Amino acid sequence: MRRAFALATFVVVPALVMAQVSTKDFARGAEIRTDGGGSLYRIELPDEVYDTSTRVDLADMRVLNATGETVPYTLREVPRSASPESAWRLVPSFPMSEAESGAAARTHVKVGADGAVLEVTNDRKSGRSTTAYLVDATGLTDPISRMSLIWEAAPGATFLVPVSVSASDDLNSWRTIVPSAAIAQLRRDTFMLTQNEIELPGAQRAKYFRISWPRELAAVTVKSVRLRPRTNAAEPEIHWRTVSAERVDPVGTAQYDTHAFLPIEYLDLEFADPIDTDLITIRSRPASTSPWELSHSGLFYVLQGPGGPIRSPYVHIGRTTERYWTVETTREGGWKQNRAPRLKVGWHPHELVFVARGPAPYTLAYGSGRVGPADAPVGELLASLSQAGDGAQVRVATLGQPRSLSGADALEPLPTPLPWKRIVLWAVLIVAVGALAFVAARLLRETKNAT
Length: 451
What we know:
By secondary structure, the chain is mostly beta strands. It has helices at about 1-10, 45-50, 380-385, 420-450; strands at about 30-35, 40-45, 60-65, 70, 75, 90, 95-100, 105-110, 115-120, 130-135, 145-150, 160-170, 175-190, 190-195, 195-205, 210, 220-230, 240-245, 245-250, 255, 265-270, 275-285, 295-305, 310, 315-320, 325-330, 340-345, 350-355, 360-365, 395, 400, 405. Strands 1, 3, 4, 29, 31 and 32 form a six-stranded antiparallel beta sheet that branches. Strands 7-10-16-12-13-14 form a six-stranded antiparallel beta sheet, with no helix packed on it. The chain has a six-stranded antiparallel beta sheet with strand order 19-20-26-22-23-24, with no helix packed on it. The chain has four helices and 32 strands. The chain folds into four domains: about 1-80 and about 350-410, no CATH class; about 85-230, Jelly Rolls (Sandwich); about 240-345, Galactose-binding domain-like (Jelly Rolls, Sandwich); about 420-450.
């Protein structure tokens, strides 16, 4: 009862704390389509909102109903699942061998009643080497999306070779699911470049996997295998933007401007050359006059493997809305002319939740130099619904095509109005002082005449 009353209150109470605005106060807008059966709706902010907003807090935005009234809304981060690292599962793995001459494999696999691999024995005759690894996935029920290998190699060993992956449910019939995937261990200065993950396209459901092992890796031993099941919960998509350098200093620093207040959480580089490695330092700042702050320092690379390019993973940083960035190289001579890398920034868009008060359709209006923050207590309502387990009451709305409202003119602040009250007050004071001066002068003259 208390929850229903709170929801009704948020729907019908007027937004007294919001100054009334109209679509004329905004540069751009888009229609929000609702199904008409709910009180709370949510949409994902389009990238254009970040590009158009004049404020880092995105406060120059409103949701208007069909009569032009402002309705309460709030912004929140999209909920995410646990860390991807926690999704990995360590599974049993066993080496398989065959004769160097290419004879059939002499590996015997013993399985239990539940299908789990109990023992794998190989022919111990000389001249036999490991040519594959058997991976037991019987303990997992969800489809597998990725595979990670942990190996042991001699100090200083380097390699870049292709492997293949097959799947089976009975250890007799095998189907190839990854014809070629590159694994690598390379060195650059004090850094080790490792490519040890294999993506399984389409997420595979199988009891057993078999990883081919090239003879070039006879001295490299797989110690463990991890599998990552595909989760049912959809991960929020990362939005990426690639930014070219606007200026390159002779000392080897390229400068970038995103021209937007993006909630950046991920960084990557796109090298100009198909093969490149470099120790990179990335810095950022919110304004062109602010000091630079370190965002990340580390190794970025792109190599050409048997199955295609091998790239360094993108970097996860703390969320920041800073607009200006630099990429600094350690290579002698800096970047070649017009060969500075392009900076890639990634983010998860905010989710806008609003109260469907008043008639539809609703309009998301954004980008204004005239509108400031609007205080609406929708966040308190969302917290109340979440604690009560009623978060599903927030329905999904869809956003129409963006359109121009007042255009670029709305991005400029209105001229500062004349302070008429202050002007009138000063005029009254001046007149009063003048009157007092006139009276004082007259009294002084009359006193002199009397004397």
